Amino acid sequence: MFTLDSASSPMRQFKASLGHILLVEDEDLIRDTVALALRNEGYDVSVSEDGHGALELLQRFEQTGGAAELVPLDLIILDIMLPGVNGLDLCRLLRRQGAMVPILILSAKGSEADRVVGLEVGADDYLAKPFGMQELIARCRALLRRQRLNVTGSQSVLRCREIYLYPQECRVTVRGEEANLSPKEFRILELFMSYPRRVWPREQLLEKIWGPDFIGDSKTVDVHIRWLREKIELDPSSPEYLVTVRGFGYRFG
Ligand code: CA
Questions:
Q1: Where is the Response regulatory domain (predicted)?
Q2: pLDDT number for residue 147
Q3: CATH fold for domain 158-252
């Protein structure tokens, strides 16, 4: 079972929000209290009471491409002891599938060993129950801030496997060599790498990169994607980075 925040229901327009958090917790009282506290702080919160519900929700994001209909997730708060798939397995699975979203693990187990296991399966932070709400909120804020720094690239490099993009220097290296990208190609790649695995419909790319006043059709996007593939893919005819998502658009990673 999962519940999408009404604010993040399909067709919702983006509004000022501090971020969209998925909370996976089977204990009603904790789930309701944490969700309420986070909403009061200005976050959109979707909730799931078990691991299967969380997986279902995440697959829905995947299938719809997130960008097209649903607000993408910025953070997952994951309880370890859950009915069905437990939090550690879910975390491991998400990382194996390439999900880059920050994950904060919650657990009744507070020992050092559990903390280490939590971090080893790919979580970004770990909080033992019982915890203070202010501490949880502070940690969420820190994870989201770190995520934004990565996303905007104001301090760091965007990286996906063998591709490095240096936003401030406007340059890209592919398999250790400088790639010679045009400004448009650079901006397309930067947008894709800022939102790994997010599916971008052609119309949305046109609007983001070419601007709302652009007159032309979405074939322009296909042409630029083809050029970009020739510069970053090992085999442009069978791309591993810039992937076509049939019926939706393009995805990176
Ligand atoms: Ca639990």
A1: 20-144
A2: 73
A3: Arc Repressor Mutant, subunit A (1.10.10)
